[in-house]
Give the backbone structure.
Amino acid sequence: MSESIIVDKHDQWVQITLNRPDRLNSFNDEMHLALRSAIECARDEGARAILLTGAGRGFCAGQDLSDRDPSKMDGPPDLSKTVRTFYAPLVNLIRSLEFPVICAVNGVAAGAGANLALACDMVFAAESAKFIQSFSKVGLIPDTGGSWHLPRLLGEARAKGLALTAMPLDAKKAEEWALIWKCVPDAELMQEASAMAEQLAHGPTLGLGLSKHAIQASATDTLSDHLELEADYMKICGESADYAEGVSAFLEKRKPEFKGS
């Protein structure tokens, strides 16, 4: 595994840490490939949750612009290739996983780094963290799903305001605006995020994964189509061992032991 990513395996979940702290964990091609590989390995090895965070004083400053500097190239870069090769597959991978992905934003999350966090299922942020749609500072648009997630989470007015001004949004305001799940004191960030990863990984992850996909699908479904989707997913859940265990545990007044199937 590349040194640009640190993988810590726990009982049922995996912590993945972006590890280019000298560059505020900004993406180069190596880190892109290493992160995607780490997520795919966690999935293939049966992880039931992932916790994503960053090393050092920031979460992720987005793309390492020294790798995309037109002054050092023969011509302008094809940034569509960067999006299609790296960022779009990463967002699609996270959204397609059949278990929760928690993000612990430990400092600045800028550009693609901010939108990587928003692609995750639950975002915890340290009080000192800031979310910055920094694209307009270099003449770009919000990528990594940012122009899709922002208006759905915040509405068009706030989405446009953040995108056009690159105004930093502190973690407390991000929580108030419902951009993230929770803002916590810096010293408690990893404890709270890890506890959530532990809780979800030992939960009924078949149902949790289907809940994730149902909520995501609601952005484009009609109500009628979505009610059918709910019926289909409830059939799957109702036939699962987790449902049988959950009902038994409830009736027997004991803690359930879910297997994720």
Q: What stands out?
A: The domain at 5-201 is CATH 3.90.226.10 (2-enoyl-CoA Hydratase; Chain A, domain 1). The chain has ten helices and ten strands. The chain has a mean pLDDT of 96.
